[in-house]
Amino acid sequence: MNTSVTIAGVTLKNPVMTASGTFGSGMEYADFVDLNRLGAVVTKGVSNVPWAGNPTPRVAEVYGGMLNAIGLQNPGIDVFMERDLPFLDGYDTVKIVNVCGKTVEDYLEVVERLQDSSADMLEINVSCPNVKEGAIAFGQKADSLFDITSRIRKVSKKPIIMKLSPNVTDITEMAKAAEAAGSDAISLINTITGMKIDIHRRKFLLANKTGGMSGPAIKPVAVRMVYQASHAVKIPVIGMGGIATGEDAIEFMLAGASAVAVGAMNFVNPHATVDVIEGIEAYMKQYDIDDIRTIIGAVSE
C-alpha cells in the first residue's frame, strides 16, 4: 500500500501535513505525536523580525470552529534558524517553512535567509486576514499575487507554495495568477474572515474585532474551492479547512488535492494528524486501493 505523494519534486511518505499556525514547529506536540509519522510539518509563520501579534483577547470559540486574530506572533527568523529548524532536523519528515511579511521586501528577506537551510519547501502566507499592515492585499488581488510570487520565485531555489485566501470573488483567478508567476504548488484555504459579539457586554469578543474562522464549519467551502482550483491549474493543490478525520482528507483528495493539512483540530485533539493518517490507511484497505495517488481528483462528474 503506497501512501506517498510528490509535490514539486519533494516526496512525502503520506499526504498529511500540519496547517501553519496550529502546530508551532512541532515542539509543542512532540510528546503527543510521533513527528516521524507525518508527511510534513508546516511551521508557524516566520517573519524577518519578531512580531508581537495583535492585542488580546484574540481567540474565540464559535459554532463549528473558532476565530483567531493572533496576528502571526512569532520570534522572527533568527530564533527560528537557531532553535526551530534544528529541532525539526531531528525527525524524518518533510519541513515546510511558512513565510509571512508586511512588505514584499520582508518576504524576500526571509526567503533569502532560508535558501541554504534544511527547509524542503516554503509556504508563502499572503492570505492572513489579521495583519492590518496590508499583507492581505497580496492574497486578494490577482496582480499583487502575481507580483509577489514572481519576485519570490526569482530568489528562491526551493519550491514555493502560495497559500491562497478564500476571501476573494474567484479562487480560480488567484490560483491561475500564482501558477503563472511560477509557484510550484498552492495551498488553500486559509481562514474565512468572521466576527463574534458578546451580546451581554455589547462588545466584540476579539480585540481585533474580526478574526479568521477555522474548523469543521468551513470544510464544505474549502472542498469546493479546492475542487475549483485544482481544475484551473496544473500545479499540485494542498487542501485544508476543517479536516478532522481520514474521511475528511479523502474528500479533499477526491476533489483534487494532492495532499492535505490538519489545522484547528490539533487544538481539540493533539493526536489528530496521526488519526487522519490512520483513517486514510483504513479507507485504502476498505476499498482495496494500492496507491493513494489514484484517488486524487477522482470524484465522478
Q: Mind explaining what this structure looks like?
A:
The protein is α/β, with parallel strands linked by helices. It has a single domain (5-55, 71-196, 214-295), classed as TIM Barrel, CATH 3.20.20.70. Helices cover 31% and strands 20% of the residues. It is built from 9 helices and 16 strands. The strands form 4 sheets. The chain has an 8-stranded parallel β-sheet with strand order 3-16-15-10-9-8-7-4. A 4-stranded antiparallel β-sheet has the order 5-6-14-11, with no helix packed on it. Strands 1-2 form a two-stranded antiparallel sheet. Strand 1 and strand 2 form a beta hairpin. Helix 2 runs parallel beside helix 4 (142-155) and helix 4 (142-155) packs parallel to helix 5. The chain is globular.
| Count of domain modules | 1
Total count of strands: 16
Calculate Rg over CA atoms.
18 Å
Low-confidence stretches: none
Report strand %.
15-25%
Structural class label = alpha/beta
At the first level of CATH, the class is Alpha Beta
Report the helical percentage.
25-40%
Largest sheet: 8 strands, parallel
Q: Would you list the SSEs in sequence order as H and E?
A: EEEEEEHEHEHHEHEEEEEHEHEHH
Distance between the termini: 27 Å
CATH topology: TIM Barrel
